[in-house]
Design the sequence.
């Protein structure tokens, strides 16, 4: 009754009956639940709940309002049950068959905990959690954080010693819809659904999931609402103080950097993996190992990695299935003197899943692929100029268009022309400068900002009108937004496309895919190197595609990505930073920034936030790169680190401090801006 967001919601009327009674009747429709008990507080305001339960022959247990876990634990003991099914009291549309499906999967799996919420495989409000009484006892004994006492099953979800499954329902709809009741607008929406249920199926004791879906379909203009676990996010935020996070021990990292600088220009092989984008003296510089989404540095500090090697590790580090595949193929030989059958297998598979792919050539990194695509476009069209939008690699043909053009011949620089994303007028302006002289228009079809309606289709039309080929650079978007890339997502087929990064889950491989008549030009346009047919990386790529197609990787990414992004936005708003913290992009790949009152990027505040997040155990740059290996342990750690960052920034602003005085190192300066 004491909900902070909607007081008295448990007894709010839905078609003439209290919300809680609707929940109870739906739960009683389960064929597998043998006993039902309502758990509430011992506050006077909840006397009404006890009275309702007594009137409807339902058991009730009351306990301390601040220790929900203790209430559940004690309630479970008086039922003499071996298994607990947890349904929250704000879900009046919970379907009995949804409950039964989760219970059956729990019993079949013989695990300790099961749910259908990570990811949600039915609407939020169809939440079911099932766990053994032994698991509840273990949780009550070992959960010491206040947040774990408030959120009953949080400890179970994030504890890696507790075996768990997420249930994928065979039939589902409206998975992005919120059907629980937290606010008055939720209550009114549920009332509409319930009214439709009674009209369509008459008044019954309970309704099935398919009936609820049918009632939903009667409502016009339903707006999906991302599932926002406000209560959890606020609990994490409120349990975090604004004191600075403890500095990390980095002596081994700093020592290795001194050694590295003696022999390696820049101290690393990749600019974005060097110390320069990080805060020197705050962030680790050398990593030693990684498994899933967890990495350890050379000083034995452990981090949840939200960089993921600059996007390749879509399944996480050291994936067991991929490691096994690589090991087996390596035993038979590696870099052969003639082609291997696996080259055909992967090329054929890519032609099946990538809309524009009729033929394929392999490279080792993204720059290989984009350079090859531009070369074949020039050979095919007989033209030299290229229009570019986004980042397309380190090679001369592109990097000459950026500030990092040292060593690039002026003649090469003059052939590349940049245009603005989502601006068709600017593309026309660029192409008209050298009318009829462009070989290709190459762009990232999507990055952190979504294309405007029909933008990609019109880019294709404009490119072809000017006699140029359209190339989609999907090195980053490929596989992260779906198995067929952005071109499948938006329904626009380019002439050529490049893929890489996630294609091998960290094993070096990329590809150029496109129309057969264009790709055939590779017979003359030279694109050849020793390791292009590396069978280990090719085998890895085949396994990655198999896992993405047949497993639940995308569902896991969606669950982790939405939770992390929603959590960040909710915490920013709660700390008064909602107008200054900006998050853009897809939940699988997003970018954040802090802005000042004039709307300009505030690099000092951003660096302060990153410092606290890093010291709290999360490795991050300015993007949030989601991996399928981000489990609830990792997500919980990320949210706690974000909370520390926001609390520290709030402290800085509230006390009118200069953030530079709170940062223990130089503020990073970007190499250049391409997007």
Sequence:
């Amino acid at each position: 009754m004491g909900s902070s967001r909607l007081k008295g919601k448990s007894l709010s009327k839905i078609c003439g009956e209290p919300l809680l009674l609707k929940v109870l009747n739906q739960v009683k429709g389960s064929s597998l639940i043998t006993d039902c008990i309502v758990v509430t507080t011992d506050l006077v305001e909840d006397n009404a709940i006890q009275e309702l339960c007594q009137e409807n022959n339902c058991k009730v247990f009351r306990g301390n309002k601040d220790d929900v876990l203790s209430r559940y634990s004690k309630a479970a003991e008086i039922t003499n049950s071996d298994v607990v099914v947890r349904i929250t009291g704000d879900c009046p549309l919970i379907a009995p068959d949804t409950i039964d499906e989760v219970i059956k999967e729990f019993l079949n799996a013989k695990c300790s905990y099961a749910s259908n919420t990570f990811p949600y495989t039915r609407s939020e409000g169809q939440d079911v959690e099932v766990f053994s009484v032994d698991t509840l006892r273990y949780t009550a004994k070992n959960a010491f954080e206040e947040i774990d006492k408030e959120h009953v099953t949080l400890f179970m979800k994030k504890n890696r010693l507790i075996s768990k499954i997420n249930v994928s329902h065979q039939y589902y709809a409206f998975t992005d819809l919120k059907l629980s009741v937290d606010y008055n607008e939720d209550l009114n929406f549920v009332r509409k659904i319930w009214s439709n249920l009674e009209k369509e199926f008459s008044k019954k004791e309970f309704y099935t999931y398919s009936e609820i879906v049918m009632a939903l379909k009667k409502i016009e203009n339903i707006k999906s609402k991302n599932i926002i676990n406000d209560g959890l996010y606020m609990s994490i935020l409120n349990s975090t103080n604004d004191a600075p996070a403890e500095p990390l021990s980095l002596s081994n990292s700093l020592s290795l950097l001194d050694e590295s600088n003696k022999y390696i220009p820049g101290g690393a092989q990749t600019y974005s993996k060097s110390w320069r984008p990080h805060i020197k003296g705050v962030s680790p510089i050398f990593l030693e190992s990684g498994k899933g989404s967890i990495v350890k540095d050379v000083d034995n500090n452990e981090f949840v990695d939200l960089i993921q090697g600059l996007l390749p590790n879509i399944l996480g580090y050291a994936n067991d299935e991929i490691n096994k595949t690589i090991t087996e193929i390596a035993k038979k030989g590696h870099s052969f003197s003639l082609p291997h059958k696996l080259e055909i297998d992967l090329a054929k598979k890519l032609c099946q899943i990538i809309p524009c792919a009729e033929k394929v050539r392999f490279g080792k990194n993204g720059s290989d692929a984009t350079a090859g695509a531009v070369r074949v476009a020039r050979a095919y069209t007989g033209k030299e100029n290229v229009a570019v939008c986004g980042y397309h690699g380190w090679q001369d043909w592109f990097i000459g268009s950026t500030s990092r053009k040292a060593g690039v011949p002026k003649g090469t620089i003059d052939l590349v022309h940049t245009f603005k994303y989502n601006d068709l007028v600017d593309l026309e302006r660029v192409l008209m400068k050298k009318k009829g002289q462009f070989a290709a228009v190459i762009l990232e079809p999507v990055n952190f900002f979504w294309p405007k309606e029909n933008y990609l289709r019109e880019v294709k039309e404009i490119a072809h009108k000017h006699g140029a080929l359209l190339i989609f650079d999907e090195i980053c978007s490929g596989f992260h937004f779906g198995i067929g890339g952005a071109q499948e997502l938006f329904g626009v087929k380019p002439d050529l496309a490049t893929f890489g990064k996630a294609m091998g889950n960290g094993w070096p491989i990329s590809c150029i895919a496109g129309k057969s008549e264009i790709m055939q030009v590779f017979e003359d346009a030279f694109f050849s190197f020793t390791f292009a047919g590396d069978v280990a990386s090719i085998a890895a790529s085949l396994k990655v595609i198999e896992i993405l197609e047949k497993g639940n990787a995308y569902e896991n990414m969606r669950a982790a990505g939405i939770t992390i992004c929603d959590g960040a936005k909710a915490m920013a708003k709660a700390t008064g930073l909602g107008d200054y913290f900006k998050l853009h992009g897809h939940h699988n790949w997003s970018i954040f920034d802090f802005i000042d009152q004039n709307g300009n990027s505030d690099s000092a505040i951003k660096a302060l936030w990153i410092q606290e997040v890093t010291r709290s155990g999360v490795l991050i740059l300015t993007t949030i790169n989601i991996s399928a290996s981000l489990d609830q342990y990792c997500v919980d750690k990320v949210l706690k680190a974000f909370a520390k960052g926001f609390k520290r920034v709030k402290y800085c602003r509230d006390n009118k401090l200069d953030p530079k005085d709170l940062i223990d190192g130089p503020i990073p300066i970007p190499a250049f801006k391409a997007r």
Summary: Residues 335-533 form a domain with the Aspartate Aminotransferase; domain 2 fold (CATH 3.40.640.10). DSSP finds 24 helices and 22 strands in the chain.
